[in-house]
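Hey, can you fold this one?
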Amino acid sequence: MIGAVVTAIAAVISMPAHAQDYPTQPVRMLGPLAGGGSDMVMRLIAPVLRTALGQPVIVDNRPSLLIPEVGMKAPPDGHTLLVLGSSFMIGHLIRDTPWDPVRDFAPVVLADTAPSVLLTHPSLPVKSVKELIALSKARPNDLNYASGTPGSSPHLATELFKNVSGAKMTLVAYKSNGHAMLSLIGGETHVMFKDSAGVDQFIKARSVRALAVTTAAPSPLFPDLPTLAASGVPGYEAVTIFGLLAPANTPRAIIDTLNGAVRKAMSAPEVADNLKALGADVVVSAPEEFGRVVEAEIKRWGELVQALKLKVD
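Sure. Predicted structure:
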């Protein structure tokens, strides 16, 4: 009896001690290959996170489809993190994956969100969302929209727009969203939903025309643009999210430590200002709030993917 009590007390004592010792080695942040939004988030917060945790923070870029598979197999000790965006949830919906975004990962923090902007080529004779919808219905076989690969954020944002508004446009898919943007600037395509990163320069240069933002409320990043919801597409919202996850069963004390460290990193002026310059809204949520966002995104995009019967091998 005494032995059992001693064992139980030892177990209770050892749990907080383990969390207090964390981290005991470098922390690895798995994220998509260089150049994307998640990679930018990682590289901005890694130096500040290193100071907060007292250990090196290593940015480990991998192909997007491999990150969850590698992350789910990592020890749940807080030394491997995943920095992923909306494509993480969408990838699970359109492909048969060995991982599940809710079952296999523990939410740590929603770091930031980024709106997209509805863009048209300047030659298109529209200056508002309502005019674009009307033109697309009048010329249903003429208008096309640019996107990266099927299932990418611009693809689903446009399909959601078509679904809600009744607009008629044809998909022209490119190897990447960057290639899709070039096609719009060059006049090969007419319309594109582009994430906010770097889009301001093209708007100012009048290479493209901006009609609206995809956030539910007006975006301080684009104060002169209305929302789609206020432009004749009620209920429309599509934002890209970026957050940190850990392998499932990571101790809650470690999750809390990481959440606090990321909060500190994101509040640093050099991080917050740079993220805003990249077109992101700093959020920094509690783990539970991020979990609810993930589940809501899966439900919303899942319904659209099912309606489109979208499946990628």
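Confidence is low (pLDDT under 50) at residues 1-17. Let me know if you want another pass with a different chain boundary.
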